[in-house]
Amino acid sequence: MKNIIQPVACEILDVKQESKQEYTFRVKTDIRPNHGQFLQLSIPKVGEAPISVSDFGDGWMDFTIRSVGKVTNEIFSKRPGDELFLRGAYGNGWPLEQFQGKHMVIITGGTGLAPVRSMLHKFEKEPDYVKSVHLICGFKNQEGILFRSELEEWKHCFSTIYALDNEKIDGWHKGFVTEFVKEIPFDSFGGDYEVVIVGPPPMMKFTGIECGKCAVPDKKIWLSFERKMSCAVGKCGHCRIDEVYVCLDGPTFNYTQAKYLVD
């Protein structure tokens, strides 16, 4: 029987700097997650951290990581050929079967683009899987932009709006993503659509509110977030909100439930 909490040593294949504070680590592994799941990454004698899968393929997996503490700082010292310890995958991913054949609206803020990146790649490679993709991506400033080459590629296959909170540069809007929700043609979808929102809790809260102003039903909105997850198997209670364990019941939630979980 497989031990679901046993970390496995995996070789780092590549390290790519995405922005000033974020790097993508490609790791050799046979683990095959669902889109939207997360793993626990660890370094012996240092600790572990829950990280969403930003992409995956045969024999490899990507993790886009922001350096924010002891564990991630130590991970940033690793290079190709070094090892990271992985356990998982954990949690519930995006409901892809429910998304199939729908118009998709995906709204992200900052590193919130990472948990939807693999799903966007799927929609890009399988253009008939969904009817259309409307993508709104926001970042604080140009130093924080992630996946620059992919953002350019997605302009050719999706309807895109890219925005910076505090700066105006060529090809980008200035403002918060909440300001552009009204530009999505929800009325033209005939009710046949789903909305995905990922980002910092305040961004998700107010983007959900803006979607409500556009008459988007709560049941059509999906969020993903990681709240103080530690064990990833529902034992430590760090991620518990009332009766909900984010690591087990999430990290993806329908807005009918998630609107009461966002800080």
From TrEMBL:
Residues 5-96 form the FAD-binding FR-type domain. It comes from the Bacteria. Signal peptide: none annotated. InterPro entries: Cyt_c3_hydrogenase_gsu (IPR012165), Dihydroorotate_DH_Fe-S-bd (IPR019480), FAD-bd_FR_type (IPR017927), FNR_nucleotide-bd (IPR039261), OxRdtase_FAD/NAD-bd (IPR001433), PyrK_electron_transfer (IPR050353), Riboflavin_synthase-like_b-brl (IPR017938), Sulphite_reductase_B (IPR014260). SUPFAM superfamilies: Ferredoxin reductase-like, C-terminal NADP-linked domain, Riboflavin synthase domain-like. NCBIfam families: sulfite_red_B. This is Anaerobic sulfite reductase subunit AsrB.
